[in-house]
Amino acid sequence: MASPFDPADLPTGMAIALSPLVHRVLAPNPSPFTYTGTQTYIVGEEAVAVIDPGPDDADHLAALTAAIGDRPVVAILCTHTHRDHSPAARPLSARTGAPVTGCAPLTLDDDGPRADAAFDADYRPDRVLSDGEQVEGPGWTLEAVATPGHTSNHLCFALRQEKALFSGDHVMGWSTSVISPPDGDMTAYMRSMQRLLERDDVIYYPAHGDPVDNPQRLVRGMMGHRKQREGQILRFLERHGESAIPDMVAEMYKGIDPRLFPAAGRSVLAHLIDLDGRGLAAPAEGGLWRTA
Questions:
Q1: Does pTM top 0.85 for this prediction?
Q2: Distances (CA, A) of 162 to 52, 75, 78, 150, 215
Q3: Could you give the C-alpha distances from 98 to 73, 123, 134, in angstroms and in order?
Q4: Which Gene3D superfamilies match (predicted)?
Q5: Of 65, 102, 116, 218, which is most buried with the most CB atoms under 10 A?
Q6: Residue 2 belongs to some domain of the structure
Q7: Which SS3 state, helix, strand or coil, does residue 122 take?
Q8: Cα–Cα–Cα angle for 100, 33, 180, nearest 5°?
């Protein structure tokens, strides 16, 4: 999680070329959780795919429509169904006739603190992609890479022609991903990170933040960060005995925006659930936790 930022003068609504096959359009939804906003990617030249169409915002939809122009849209792809990612799929499909494709639908009452990231209960894909399935257009191929963790239905999309990965919220250059139970799963997240570490992608295009070059180095660093956090939690419990999550957050997340404390608490909970599953920590009465 990162510190507050000034979103002034950011290029929302503009189609910015990142490579011969990839353009980015930034949605006007900056926040402490979305950073500068959700980034929608347009892939292809003659006919295109749209990845993470973003929020159902009139200005953003107009910007996407202008960036697509008269080119046919092969598919509208969603990495996951948090509502800063998928709601624009429906109106964009209505405008372009393109099928909504990608992650499975997921409706869940998330008891986490992120109102901006509630699930899009209206998401109804025309086609759900399983791991390894592909969508193709002239000069490009996108392959689904299952990466559960941030959400259970999270997919990344690999662009074979450029060894690029659209990493959604699973890996972002500006911040670590929030893992918020009950759907967010730290055990699944770490397995997915290991899977990405073993791939040969040369660049990541995240849904929030700048492109990530040398992505394996970042993935290794993020995995190391999670292991360090796990160690902090265990040492805290060893020192203090039965403890509450807010007390852990207050010590371990000094210096971050206090508005992010509730989300930090969700990540601590995700770590504790993972530690419980491995026999290293256990829940105690009154919402407290202890070492096992």
A1: yes
A2: 19, 19, 20, 25, 14
A3: 6, 15, 16
A4: Ribonuclease Z/Hydroxyacylglutathione hydrolase-like (3.60.15.10), Winged helix-like DNA-binding domain superfamily/Winged helix DNA-binding domain (1.10.10.10)
A5: 102
A6: no
A7: coil
A8: 80
Alpha-carbon span 128 to 134, nearest angstrom: 11
Residues 133 and 148 in one domain: yes
Model pLDDT for residues 161-203, shown as the tens digit of each residue: 999 999 999 999 888 898 999 899 999 999 999 999 999 999 9
Q: Which residue has the tokens 């929608």?
A: 40
Cα–Cα dist 291/28, whole Å: 44
The enclosing domain of 278 has a CATH number of 1.10.10.10
Q: Are 72 and 187 members of one domain?
A: yes
Tell me, yes or no, whether 165 and 231 share the same domain.
no
Beta bridge partners of 285: none
Amino acid at 98: A
Q: What is the token pair recorded at 238?
A: 């060893």
Q: In the sheet that 22-26 helps form, which strands lie side by side, from edge to edge? A: 15-17, 22-26, 39-43, 48-51, 73-78, 100-102, 127-128
Q: What is the CATH number of the domain that holds 81?
A: 3.60.15.10
Instruction: Give the end of a domain, one of 197, 216, 235.
Output: 216
Q: Which element (helix H / strand E) includes 89?
A: helix 89-96
Give pLDDT tens digits for 213-241.
999 999 999 999 999 999 999 999 999 99
For the sheet containing 140-146, what is the strand order?
134-137, 140-146, 155-159, 164-168, 203-206, 212-213
Closest C-alpha to 176, from 154, 198, 149, 201: 149
Task: State which of 163, 194, 216 marks the end of a domain.
Answer: 216
